[in-house]
Structures are given as structure tokens and as C-alpha cells.
Amino acid sequence: MKYKNADTVLPEVLLREIQKYIQGTTIYIPNTDGVRKKWGENSGSRELLIRRNREIRAKFSAGQSIDQLADTFCLSHDSIKRIVYTKKR
């Protein structure tokens, strides 16, 4: 969440109206419905995990064992199984 000064982003008329209700404090204004981003979209973590999982699937298809992949990617045996046996991206 980013902090912005209201007098730099809001029209003066709207700012004066808001000041009738609240002054000198931080206020959170939520996103409109349907605008919320999914986990990891801002930081890039989501894309990083997608690429890692694709690499795991490719190496598994090329013949690496689940145990080898678990050691290589520092994941549990069950996590590797879930990745290679799920058909996602």
C-alpha cells in the first residue's frame, strides 16, 4: 500500500468534503470491486514460481527423478509430485 498526500491527488472540492469527516489522520481507500490483484503479481513472485514449475516439469519429462528434482530445487518429495502431476501453465 502506498501513501499519498490527499492534497496532491484529490480535487480541492473533494478534499474539503472529506475534511468535514476526518482530518490529520491516515485513511485507507480500497480498490473498486474486481480490481484486486492476485498474490505475487506486484512483486513478480507469481511469475517466478510459474517459471520454476515449468522447469521442474521439463526436467521431469527429460528423465530426472522426483528425488533428484527435490534435491535440486530444495523442495519436498510431495511438492515435486504435486508440481509434475498437475497440468498447469
Order of helices and strands: HHHHH
Structural class per helix/strand content?
mainly alpha
* Mean pLDDT figure: 89
* C-alpha termini separation: 29 Å
Shape: rod-shaped
Roughly how much helix do the residues carry, as a percent range? Answer: 40-55%
Number of strands: 0
Largest sheet: none
* Count of helical stretches: 5
What Rg, in angstroms, do the CA atoms define?
23 Å
State the low-pLDDT regions, or none.
none
Beta-strand content bin: under 5%
Feature tags:
89 residues; rod-shaped; 51% helix; mainly alpha
Describe the structure in your own words.
The protein has 89 residues and is mainly α. 51% of the residues lie in helices and 0% in strands. It has helices at 6-9, 12-19, 45-61, 66-73, 77-84. The chain starts with 5 loop residues before the first helix and ends in a 5-residue tail after the last helix.
Question: Quick recap of the structure?
Answer:
The protein has 89 residues and is mostly helical. The chain is built from five helices and no strands. The chain is rod-shaped.
Q: Topology of this protein?
A:
Layout: H1 6-9, H2 12-19, H3 45-61, H4 66-73, H5 77-84
Helix pairs in contact: 4-5
